[in-house]
Amino acid sequence: MSENERGSEIVQFAVTVPLLVLVVFATMQLGGMALAASQLSSEITRACRQFDAGGFERATDKEAFVEEGIVGASSQLRPESLHVERVRWERETRQEGSDSAGGAIEQRTSLLALSYDVRYELPSILDVPGLSGRSLERSVLGVFSEGRVIEVEVGP
């Protein structure tokens, strides 16, 4: 093996190793992003199931109340990376009557429709251009009847 060949191998090694390391860390970053996306959706759904609809209506800062509910129900999300925006709600009371077996039955149902947007800043393993500093955004719609959730929809 001549000196030129050995020098050529060193140059190839010096170029190849950083690229391989970059590919490994980028793969880990993408895997972490996919895991965070899955965790965010499941934690939001869990928070909706445990949501205090009565406390929400009495709260003065709706965004903070919803954010605290998500963080309180979550064991996996970083609180400083979670932001809740554009909280909207509507209360509706439905009254239905029926006549069965000679007696009138009246049923009154109180519904609360709550929607909000969640932004979660993804954790970064390595400062890789194009992959670091990303965030996930989800729109959430929850419908509550008598303080219990009956429908949760988490979408992009």
Distance, first to last CA: 59 Å
Strand content: 35-45%
Rg over CA atoms: 26 Å
Q: Give the averaged pLDDT, no decimals.
A: 82
Count of β-strands: 4
Q: Which consecutive residue ranges, at least 5 long each, have pLDDT under 50? A: none
Strand neighbour order, sheet with most strands: 1-2-3-4
Element order, helices and strands?
HHHEEEE
- Helix % is 40-55%
Count helical runs. Answer: 3
- Sheet bearing the most strands, described? 4 strands, antiparallel
**What number of structural domains do the residues give?**
1
Q: Find the structural class using helix and strand composition.
A: alpha+beta
Shape: rod-shaped
What features would you describe in this structure?
- The protein has 156 residues and is an alpha+beta fold.
- It contains three helices and four strands, in the order H-H-H-E-E-E-E.
- It has one domain.
- It is 42% helix and 37% strand.
- It has a four-stranded antiparallel beta sheet with strand order 1-2-3-4, covered by helices on one side.
- Helix 1 crosses helix 3.
